[in-house]
Write a structure and sequence with these properties.
The chain has about 200 residues and is mainly α. It has one domain. Helices cover about 75% and strands about 0% of the residues. The protein contains nine helices and no strands. The longest helix is centred in the C-terminal third of the chain and has 33 residues. The mean pLDDT is about 80.
Length: about 200
């Protein structure tokens, strides 16, 4: 195994997974709107969805799909519509200070779906997998190791974003401040999704 390549993969993975994007912004927003503990299923769905994305990237399925004419714009529109729906759910969630527990929290299925429709996830994994070789001449072992390393990074980064979002909402306890945080994160989610639109 190439240890220098492993360090480079970890550093690149931290930057790609940790940078603001639809998944990270929605996690922080869910933490702020619903609390960290109640948002763990959503976080798990995002992580396992990304595991599926990594498998699709490593197997070459994504490259084959992207070769189909017209598929990229359709996938982008579908992703943007889903992000608008999620942003609306977050922006309209009652403030944590209300103590309401009957609000529908994004579920594990919501997280899975979001990861599968998130173009940034595919782009990040394509860049990560194509630019680093950990085990030369052993494609399957190389892919499995890359997936394992990237999955651990995603779990750690997701937990940080979730706790940051929940911490902001707990720090600003008034219903008005919670509402502003929810709307702010919803706007950031839409902004990060808008960056995915090809120019």
């Amino acid at each position: 195994m190439d240890h220098d390549a492993l360090i480079a993969l970890i550093l690149a993975g931290l930057v790609l997974a940790g940078s603001p994007g639809p998944n990270t912004m929605s996690l922080a927003a869910a933490g702020a709107a619903f609390g960290a503990r109640r948002s763990v299923p959503f976080m798990s769905g995002l992580a396992f969805g990304m595991l599926g994305v990594m498998a699709l990237v490593a197997s070459g399925v994504v490259a084959m799909l992207l070769a189909v004419p017209g598929i990229a714009p359709v996938a982008t529109v579908a992703a943007l519509l889903y992000f608008v729906y999620l942003a609306w759910k977050i922006a309209t969630a009652p403030p944590l200070a209300d103590g309401a527990t009957d609000r529908r929290v994004p579920s594990i299925a919501d997280g899975l779906l979001q990861s599968f429709v998130n173009p940034k996830g595919y782009a990040a994994m394509l860049a990560l997998f194509a630019s680093h070789t950990l085990i030369a001449d052993r494609l399957l072992a190389d892919a499995v190791l890359k997936i394992a390393v990237a999955f651990v990074i995603i779990l750690l980064v997701n937990a940080v974003w979730l706790v940051v979002g929940a911490g902001l909402a707990r720090f600003f306890r008034s219903p008005r401040a919670n509402r502003i945080i929810n709307i702010g994160f919803a706007i950031l989610l839409l902004a990060s999704a808008a960056l995915l639109i090809p120019h």
